[in-house]
Amino acid sequence: MSQIFHPSTNTISRASIFGAVFLVGGGLWMLQQVNRAPYVTQAFVTREQPVPFSHAHHVGGIGIDCRYCHTTVETSAFAGIPPTKTCMNCHAQLYNDSPTLEPVRASFRTGMPLVWTRVHDLPDFVYFDHSIHVNKGVACATCHGRVDRMALVWQESSLLMEWCVECHRHPEVAVGPRDQVTNPLAGAAAQHAAMRDGANLLKQYDVRTRTDCSTCHR
Amino acid sequence: MKTPGPDPRTGRRYWRGLEELAGTPEFRERLEREFPASASQFDDPVGRRRFLQLMGASMALAGLTACTRQPKETISPYTEAPETVIPGRPLQYATAVTLGGVATGVLVETHEGRPTRIDGNPDHPASLGAADVFTQAAILGLYDPDRSRTVSYLGEIRPWGDFPGIIREVMKAQAPRRGAGLRILTETVTSPTLAGQIRDFLSVYPEARWHQYEPVVRDNVHAGARLAFGEPVDSIYKLHEADVILSLDADFLAPGPGALPLIRQFAARRRPKPDEVAGMNRLYVAESTPSSTGAMADHRLRLRSGDVQALAVEIARQTGLWVGGGHAAPPATLAARAQRWVEAVAKDLLAHRGRSLVMAGTGQPPAVHAAAHAINDALGNTGRTVVHIEPVRAEPRPQVESLRELTGDMQAGRVDMLLILGGNPVFTAPADLSFGDAMQKVALRIHLADDEDETSAQCQWHIPRAHELESWSDARAHDGTVTIQQPMIEPLYGGRSAHELLAVLMDRTGKSAHDLVREHWIASAAAGQQGPGFEAWWRKCLHDGLVPGTASAPRRVTLRSDWAAALSETAPSVQAEGTFEIVFRPDPAVFDGRFANNGWLQELPRPITRLTWDNAAQVSPADAEALGLQNEDVITLRLDGRAVDAPVWIVPGHAKGSVTVHLGYGRRQSGRVGQDVGFDASALRTSSSPWFARGLTLESTGRTHRLACTQTHQSMEGRHHVRAATGAEYARDPECVRHMGEEPAADMTLYPPFAYEGHAWGMSIDLSSCVGCNACVIGCQSENNIPVVGKDQVLLGREMHWIRVDRYFEGDTDDPEYFNQPVPCMHCENAPCEPVCPVGATVHSSEGLNDMVYNRCVGTRYCSNNCPYKVRRFNFLLYQDWKTPSLQMLRNPDVTVRSRGVMEKCTYCVQRINQARIASQREDRPVRDGEIVTACQQACPAQAIVFGDINDPESLVSRRKAEPRNYGLLAELNTRPRTTYLATLRNPNPELEKD
Questions:
Q1: Whether residues B342 and B417 fall in one domain
Q2: DSSP code, position B928
Q3: What is the DSSP letter of B496?
Q4: What is the 3-state secondary structure (H, E, C) of chain A?
Q5: Does B735 lie in the same domain as B696?
Q6: Positive or negative, the Cα torsion across B765, B767, B768, B774?
Q7: B227 and B367 in contact (C-beta within 8 Å)?
Q8: Are B296 and B371 in a shared domain?
Q9: Which of A216, B27, B89, B421 is the most interior residue, by most CB within 10 Å?
Q10: Å from A10 to nearest chain B CA?
Q11: d(CA B94, nearest CA chain A) in Å
Q12: At B268, which CATH number?
């Protein structure tokens, strides 16, 4: 009786068993990469907004401090989206007939809010607090990037847990002088040894590694 | 498994329920399961095959779920930001929530204008910072999706604008008759503004009448005061001044108007240090139905409610008070045991002249109240442990009488328009008045109410009422202190307040409640606050939550010489053989039925019975045995030709020959929660005997009705968890509590010890002061977004409360002692749940919290299986309502709303810990002791729960844990619980201890 399987079957089966390991491994790796890709995390994706507000112009160009609009960043979990009134403080006088700003004027006239699209959106089981990060000397730019160069804002970081935990394990990489938190250059500078003075600031600001689950999840 | 025998160390034997004591096979089976009654297997039609299919599909999908993108979200900022609002940080506003017209001062937490939680106002005399179950659950009432939303006429939607026109016509017709055909029916009114408005109305229409009716009627209390003093004064008790307290069927520790300060005062004298034992108070309770108060008693005498009067007479006689002639010898109804009890109590009262107190229950006849006043007076307690004040309610007329008069007028056709401002009289009025039928003779019937209830169904006009958190008003506390109620939010459904309706009557349509309340106070503010100073005074009153100087003035009253006459006139008749006494009680959860549609309260295990979602005919074990009744048997209760079917619940310690039923159930027209839950006990209630009556007969029907009781759920396998000692034992040997159990040495572990540097959170629960009022359970539910699961799920043992109040019996089934034990997660340092979790979803934090990470949990339930305390709760189904918009507004935004398939449990309110830590670090200071208050601790009126840093030896929690009464629940398992207990202390009278 002749053999059912050709001798080459041996090689093929060995190769495919061996290959399957790589296939599965590769598949898992792919999945991880897809999960980290901007396609999923939405990093670097600019969002449509009701008014094409340019941080590049207002922060980079005019030099308005972050806290002029995001007033509660030092006192609350939520940094605060400015009320229409804040826009109108200037735009009642400046460009007060610009058609681009009509939604702002309409909002102020009618009392109906401007509806902004959220750019930085954490999952609902994560509780992030702006105030404590800012008070510990984590600069806005550390997480939000060079907002002063963004015409329309995008999310600079992945906002994945691994990204959060990186700093929570090694806070020295993110902590800078408190008085520089709103400096757009501070984020980049925090990586820069000359400015951050690492261990000293940690002690001065009583910064600890916080990796308990309940620090953020509750 | 054997049923537990007496503890060799204490000789006591604790048991949770009658099934356990009897050791029935059903009970054993239930014990051996983590979640009873097939909770762990599929027995629905879906079946095994389908299950495997679903599992396969979900496994395939599970890998992909990680790849979901965040959905698009939007942010709508203010157009002009209010000055005080910091988005992301809640604000608290002071206001008041009323029950039976009586206010409890509260602070309402609002998130960007959305009220989410009600806490007590520490400055308010009726709250002192605590809040009871009703007060806290009012927030769910605000967002109740079944509230009525529109004005309706004969069930058709009408615009509000139609209503004033109709009223104007009626008023025009009534003006020449001086309002003879007008009747206003309200609940108890304490609101100065509303009372002023009604009086103004009555001065314009002098022939009109104002009636008040409250189902939990306090007529007897007031009549008692009239009998004793000739005027209807209110009494304020000072329990902290009393060494000996005798309750004559008075359930003063149960949630109700004015109960919170009483609990605070009572509890303060129940937790002595070993050298302060002499300062403990002693509580004697004579009652029919085992109540929260009876559970705390040092000596409890079970006695039919109808026999309490005989007891009061006897106490009066033995305290040397009895003066009247012509009274019979000691009533035969008092058994020998009761006689001995009375002698000891009387002796104790006499030994504590001026430092004792006698209280009579709301349901007791006026004569008993008069006797209590007289005894207090004779003992010199008046002015020291009890103070009499001007009546707080605006109209002190007897209410049942008033309702009878109204019914008579309606029957006689003398009423043209009936305006019902709140309340549900068709459901709650005494059965013999046939209020609903009489009402049909009225041409125009208008009902202002929260939802379309039984009364609305019989009225042409239904006007949705603005919730107390939606409208301006004012109300007085039990001591008279006024709080101006301010709205937290615009009326969700355009509701109107009683003030606005009365303004319509007076042709002042369009006046807002704010204007009306303010006008009243502008007119009646004290001289110094008039004119330009008013605004500052008004704002201060609103800010503080009370109007200073409005507490009722104390009244000097003298006992009438003929106070005892009524005692002999109303001497109780002897109960006929084979008949029973029926006792009506307001339900500890749904009260008179007004909270029937409140899921939190319906699912709240009632004190003592641990029943949820039902009321029952409560009978004593002896009667049940004699009649061959078992739990859940349905019987027919028959009284004076009226009958109602009710399931039986056997309650250890219930008085023999007496049956207790709770009011507020059997709602025929309520919302999706409260409709047709339980039976309507008020069908047997008559105007002549609203609280107890004789001549009840019981008939078996042969049917059964399942009752959802949490009594034997989450069993702890019959170990001895409650430790109790008497004050004398404790003073003699402070270490006696420690000797009742074993605690392994700290180094009995294979792992190196973890040094908790920084904070180490811990909790201490004082069992001696816990009165089992359940305030912590609702406080937790409100804070932590805990869902309501429904009766079917409770029957499967799937209730979700993170803290439960276990109740243990000790001793004889006929006359047991009761012990309460609140059980939250223990946050064990050697937590058994942690090593068994395959996905690391429950892990320890560096501060000693047993963290539960919902987003990691895959729902194996191993942790719950391995938890010896059974405090973990699993979302078997999607219990949270994710769809109803109004309920979304209710949620605490600082706590994750859990989904199906996730384990959850007490977190020690980690959101509050984090907030306090962040706040302290923002200010560069350490967290102060007492800065973090858990929700259960905040609600607790007895201050039994204390939370804090056990690394700080000066913290309150450390000091409590250093007391020798401290012990860990199941500490012998070496779990090293962070939540520990202080053992119960009782203060029995040595004279009575002998039997």
A1: no
A2: P
A3: B
A4: CCCCCCCHHHHHHHHHHHHHHHHHHHHHHHHHHHHHCHHHHCECCCCCCCCCCCHHHHHHHCCCCHHHHCCCCCCCCCCCCCCHHHHHHHHCCCCCCCHHHHHHHHHHHHCCCCCEECCCCCCCCCCCCHHHHHHCCECHHHHHCCHHHCCCCCECCCCCHHHHHHHHHCHHHCECCHHHCCCCCHHHHHCCHHHHCHHHHHHHCCCCCCCCHHHHCC
A5: no
A6: positive
A7: yes
A8: yes
A9: B421
A10: 32
A11: 22
A12: 3.40.228.10
Nearest 10 degrees: Cα torsion A169, A175, A178, A183: -130
pTM summary value: 0.90
Same domain, B821 and B955: yes
Residues A93 and A155 placed together within one structural domain of the fold: no
Give the whole-angstrom CA distance, residue B677 versus residue B664. Answer: 9
Which residues of chain A have a CB within 8 Å of the CB of B849? Answer: 212, 214
Q: Are residues A143 and A72 in the same domain?
A: yes
- Structural domain that includes position A17: 8-36
For residue B882, what pLDDT is reported?
A: 87
Query: What is the reported pLDDT for B810?
Result: 83
Into how many domains does chain B fold? 4
- Residue B247 lies in domain: 234-389
- A115 to B924: CB separation less than 8 angstroms, yes or no: no
- Answer yes or no: do B537 and B595 share one domain: no
Which of B79, B855, B857 should we substitute to test contact with A (largest number of A Cβ atoms within 10 Å)?
B79
Q: What is the pLDDT of residue B716?
A: 46
Contacts of B914 in chain A (CB under 8 A): 127, 129, 214-215, 218
* Domain CATH code at residue B676: 2.40.40.20
Residue type, B582: I
A24 and A59 fall within a common domain? no
In this prediction, the residues of chain B whose per-residue pLDDT falls under 50 are 1-4, 36-42, 325-330, 713-716
Buried b (16+ CB within 10 A) or exposed e, B66-80: eeeeeeeeebebbbe
A195 or A35, which is more confident?
A: A35
Buried b / exposed e over B27-64, threshold 16 CB at 10 Å, is beebbeebbbeebeeeeeeeeeeeeeeeeeeeeeeeee
Residues B835 and B879 in one domain: yes
Indicate which CATH number applies to the domain containing B888: 3.30.70.20
**pLDDT for the residue numbered A48:** 87
Residues A60 and A108 occupy one common structural domain:
no
Relative orientation angle of helices B308-318 and B366-378, to the nearest 10 degrees? 20
Q: Provide the β-strand partners of residue B818.
A: B809
Nearest CA in chain A to B90: A76
Query: Based on the domain organization, do B771 and B685 belong to the same domain?
Result: no
How many structural domains are present in chain A? 3
Residues of chain A positioned with their CB less than 8 A from the CB of B66:
31, 35
Contact predicate B637/B659, CB 8 Å? yes
Residue A48 lies in a domain: no
